[in-house]
Amino acid sequence: STRSFEDFYTFQYGSLALCSNQPAYFGKGTKLTVLEKDVTEPTLEILSPSQNELCKRNRVTLICLATDFYPDHISITWDLPELNEPTRIKTDTPVLNGHTKLYSISSRLRVPKSVWCNPDNKFTCIVTFGMENGTETYRRSIHGSQDCVKKTELVKKNNNTAKFVYLMFFGKSVLYGLLISVFMWKMKVSNVTVRHGDIPNVLMLKINNVSITLI
């Protein structure tokens, strides 16, 4: 059996089952696990914010992934630059892959977009993993992107261009409609016939088969 590094504040006292990879809790302190396979160290990766977030939101998400490890004695923290704006961290519980019998875990860090778009800012994911003879610490870092502002501006420029093209075609459609209306009006006027009667001061107009007498 191995003793993990974790201290769990739990009210489960003296679990009776010590099956393979089933933890036993002793009061407010130590979690013990009987291993059914060799320890496998985690693989770390940090995923940068998506382009969709950068274009549409004021806050963006960085994701730290720790995959393919065993057992599930693990914790994730973040080392961040000094920020005046608040950050949000959400870490999931380890998930077991039923096929490989290995665990994975993710931690999401949300920061203002302006913080991520500063290349001087460094974001470090720190994973502490429980080994048979103690703990091991792993780090993975990523710097803010200096291209995200340019990409965001390019997307906005493309959107503005699309809006301009739409308005231009809409304006042409309206103008075309007006020209058709004027043309139809002229056609109606051209169908007007004028007849002089016996009385010079009487003018007969016939518009669309409707006779109008003007005196």
From TrEMBL:
Pfam families on file? C1-set
Keywords from the named record: Immunoglobulin domain, Membrane, Transmembrane, Transmembrane helix
Q: Which residues form the Ig-like domain?
A: 42-143
Q: What is this protein called?
A: Ig-like domain-containing protein
Q: Which SUPFAM superfamilies match?
A: Immunoglobulin
Keyword Membrane tagged: yes
Span-the-membrane segments of this chain are 164-185
Would the keyword Membrane turn up in this protein's UniProt record? yes
- The source's superkingdom equals Eukaryota
PROSITE patterns in the record: IG_LIKE (PS50835)
